Amino acid sequence: MDRLSNLPHDIMVHILSLVDIKSAARSSLVSKRWRYVWTHLVNLVFEAPESYDFSPRQLIKGLDDTQVEKFCTMVNKVMTANCATFLNSFRICFPLKKPTSNGIDNRLNFLYHLRNSNLGDINKWIEFALTKRVRNFELNLSDFQGNIVVNSYTIRKDFFLVRPVYNDHLYTLQSLHLEGLNMDGPVLENVLAYCLNLECLTARSLRYHSSPSRSSFDYTQNQHRHLVVSSLKLKYLEICHCFDIKSLKISAPKLTSFTYFANYGSIEVEYTNVPSLVNVTFGDHYCFHILHNLHLLSSFSHQLEKLAIHWNQVNRVAYGLNVILRNNLLDLKSFIEKCPMLHTFKLELWPLSKQAVPMSGQRDVTINYEMHKHNQLKVLEIVGFDGSASLAEFVFCVTQNAPMLKKIICDYRCPRSKGNAHKWYDLQYIDRKGFVRRQAKLLAKQIRGGVDVVIL
């Protein structure tokens, strides 16, 4: 212990940065030398503990007031004690909301209201982070599935202008993550306009502030907005389930990665200037929209290196779209054919039911596996592998027409929806693990030599 106490102050701070904030604070009891070291931490992460119950039953019930107040008290105490001159990261990831009296609305989405007593706390957290010239800032008040937020915290369109004479943080903010919030205006556009060094922007489960007289989320009455993303330095952009946004226009010459999830209505995305875009992830309804309108990718498909498709068949049914039949997963080959420079294709499958037709021990010779030869594809990853015949046919089609393919990854676990981790999905499908692994091994035996099949 004496040797550790003799280390330089910066190294001691770095050691404490490797543990959670509670453990770091306990180090003050070790000795006088360690008493205030934790107050100089520059990475402050506040999130739900691993022991939290992630089940839907708990989400409906809501968090206990004691849990919420305990969390807020901890954050406030750490803020008061912190002596760092700047912050590298400040993350709030905790659902400070409770269900409405109805619990669930008519679209089977959980509705939550923010506790009034926490509004002042959130304002203090934002001001603290920005005055500390934070580089990476996350404010995430969504539940553990990223569900609809009603009467959540409303973030002002000028929230980043903390004080008229003190706005150095406008030049230090590099990454911003907003989730589970309401917006009172063009929050995202203003952030991009004022924070000139912003490189990463993540927006999940956001909606524009509506009249407080409406007690439930109303899809028909909310005003749709047109979002314009224009930035010279933005490299990473993620927009997932942001309600009210009807169209999106992107002009970002340095943008390399883009993630977009939209699960309702007609979506228009215009890619006006994305010469550096090489990594794309599409999810939910937008996948189906793109599949039938591949020309929308023409401005950047020739340069894509990584493409991930989150194919949610549950949403496909919910929104009145045709269910995928046994061999219709072969249609997904169009995504690969459209991107000649693609070297990694990731398919995330959300299970529709447990009634999928399992693959057999031999290929079906009657199926047409024709596809344009793809000479760049090297990795095929499947998350939510269910051992179905339709999925096996898709894999056979790709392996037959991608001579440079080196690896296939089969992961039985259910894909994560955009939002906090919700472990209960893995528990729900754990009983199928043995069957799926046997199916994956059966698939591996039928794939041509030279392809490494990794089963997770």
TrEMBL record:
It comes from Chenopodium quinoa. This is F-box domain-containing protein. CDD domains: F-box_AtFBL13-like (cd22160). Residues 1-49 form the F-box domain. It comes from the Eukaryota. Gene3D superfamilies: 1.20.1280.50, Ribonuclease Inhibitor (3.80.10.10).
